Amino acid sequence: MNKIINQILGLGVGVVLACGCGTTPSETQTETAASHTFQIDASKTIAKVEPTMYGIFFEDINFAIDGGLYAELVKNRSFEFDKPLRGWTELKDKGLGVRFLPINTNNPRNTRFMRVQIEDQGSGAGLLNEGFRGMGLKEGLPHNFSIQVRGGDGKVSAIRIELLDSKGEVIANSRVDGINNEWQTLTTSLTPSKTDAKGTMKIWFEGEGTVDIDMVSLFPTDTWKGRKNGLRADLVQLLADMDPGFLRFPGGCIVEGFDLSQRYQWKNTVGDVDERVVTINRWNFEFDHRPAPDYYQSFGVGFYEYFLLAEDLEAEPVPILNCGMACQFNTGELVPLDQLDPYIQDALDLIEFANGSTDSKWGKLRADMGHPEPFNLKMLGVGNEQWGPQYVERYVPIVNAVKAKYPEIQIIAATGSDGSIFPNGEEEIEYLWKEWKRLKPEIVDEHFYRNPDWFMKNADWYDNYERTGSKLFVGEWAAQSVGVASPDNKNNWETALSEAAFLTGLERNADLVTMTSYAPLFAHAEGWQWTPDLIWFDNLDSYGTANYYVQKMYATNPGTHVIPLEKDGKPVTGQNGLYATATRDENAGELIIKIVNTGEAAVEASFDVAGATIGTEVTAEVLSSKELEAVNTLDEGNKISPRTEKKTLDSEKLSYQLEPYSFTVLRVEAK
């Protein structure tokens, strides 16, 4: 996920599915015009499907948090970006009557506030905040405003707040007063008279003199679960609808940082919001084609909020920690081994924060933040996309310390990025696998960013992996319609269909692959750096891509046990352009079949089911499009979305006609 990728992979890799994997158009039309019969044995078990099988990867890329999931509408609310007034515009007459002076506090957890000196306010003295590509303001909805303020010399008696639409017309206003010479937080509420995705906010100072301000904030009140100053409800709902088994956070390359000074440090993201350390986002400067100089992390969503979100989603929290290495695609900066203790302590303290009693230091902080009950952390990732002996020699002491104190914690190790996109990739991955066989982490994380054709041709990728060692987490993967990190990648139906095909192989190998997640998760329609992405949004609306619906259909139809589904004695891994897997759901008493038709003709699929008596009605969830280049958009968020239909079987044999270019989930009672 960086500039080096473009140098290594200067290639276009979009491959049209056309007529199915490895066939010509005439061959496909001939083959798929006929019926195909598959054999299922519901009495046999290949593997248990773990509750963690399908989950969510979260990284603060593409303005996923500030400007996205975190509902704060004010950008640079604490004046701690590189430029203190980035995101702000001074409102004053020309001349020296009004000055805005950033003051350094010498407090590393709150480095600046803004001093406003008004000698002659003229026609007015104030500041305008532009929001994150504008502010999404909603008609009739109260928006909570707050500001930390301290008066000085003179008499600045009040602050007037205005919300403006995209034309600059005032659509809400209010006022706070009572300013004195002590720091205090003043609050009010504003209710816009219209909805606008490109609103702005002005604050005006009444009177003359000196006033200090900090933490200028504006939140809508329709947040997830109604939590004050919380998360965007529509974005969380899209996650909740996936019924994820886990939530991996906070990344991704953001864990590592461009250098170690910019690495993700979880202790800087907890406690009082105004004491969290604002940090540049490493995606601020990563791509020349998508500069984002205003991309910073306020950490309004920090590790506490991640844990809380995982709890809301009933998903296992899966934090990933820096192991003393910066991104190896960037500086590759290393902490000396004799200075690794703070990184080790961070891991131990994180487990205490998540699971410790309220009598412990970090458990008490969790309780003070509002959650005395433990978060029941079970898994911990050490390093993200690291490789080489430098990784192993830092991984070992961290893991040894964790296991000595918390032997029950499962460790997730990395294999670097996709072997095709980093220097000597395949050799590096082979080296790490030798080390993991020796060190035996519970789980190993593999990443894939490749073209759609690769995913279709490799649905059997894990069929021959060794079964005696670590389980696998396919933690980042997505089909790239053009090329890895290309700004021209699209979330089109071709990519989603290829991912549906590949997932049949992951599910069929559920004895080995126990976790999988698409990446990246979120993207702001005007603030993205990386494509493709699972969910897109602007300041008011959001939608799931075709890729999102593929992931959702797998996650909401997992079953409890993988069972054999074959054609002519072999797994269905692309023969005739078809891919399939089956599970039984012992909780629901149902048989679940997932089947992908990558061909341009319809297919009559029949299933001989042994070991169970099936019911007379089948429920089908179907995701399809005749256009491989079709995409969902903000205007057409459901252009490619699943529909559900029921069919009464006219015989004891289960059959269903598969549409061209389709992914279908069949559920039928099975006793």
Q: Can you tell me about this structure?
A:
One of its GO terms (molecular function) is alpha-L-arabinofuranosidase activity. This protein is α+β, with helices and mostly antiparallel strands. The protein has three domains: 8-48 and 562-670, Golgi alpha-mannosidase II (Immunoglobulin-like, Sandwich); 56-72 and 223-331 and 376-384 and 411-553, TIM Barrel (Alpha-Beta Barrel), CATH 3.20.20.80; 88-220, Galactose-binding domain-like (Jelly Rolls). Strands 4, 5, 6, 7, 8, 9, 10, 11 and 12 form a nine-stranded antiparallel beta sheet that branches. The chain has an eight-stranded parallel beta sheet with strand order 3-13-16-17-18-19-20-21. Strands 2-25-28-29-34-31-32 form a seven-stranded antiparallel beta sheet, covered by helices on one side. A hairpin with a 7-residue loop joins β5 (98-104) and β6 (112-118). α5 (341-355) crosses α7. The protein is globular, with a radius of gyration of 27 Å. It starts with a helix and ends with a strand.
Number of strands: 34
Q: Count up the helices.
A: 11
**Count of folded domains:** 3
Outline the low-pLDDT stretches: 1-32
CATH architecture of the largest domain: Alpha-Beta Barrel
Rounded to the nearest angstrom, the radius of gyration is 27 Å
Which CATH class of the largest domain is shown?
Answer: Alpha Beta
**N-to-C span:** 48 Å
The averaged pLDDT comes out at 93
Shape: globular
Q: Estimate what percentage of residues fall within beta strands.
A: 25-35%
User: Major sheet, described briefly?
Assistant: 9 strands, antiparallel
Tell me the CATH topology of the largest domain: TIM Barrel
- Helix proportion range: 10-25%
Going by CATH, the homologous superfamily of the largest domain would be: Glycosidases
Category from helices, strands and their pairing: alpha+beta
Pfam families: Alpha-L-AF_C (PF06964), ASD1_dom (PF22848)
Organism: Reichenbachiella agariperforans
GO molecular function, one term: alpha-L-arabinofuranosidase activity
Family: Belongs to the glycosyl hydrolase 51 family.
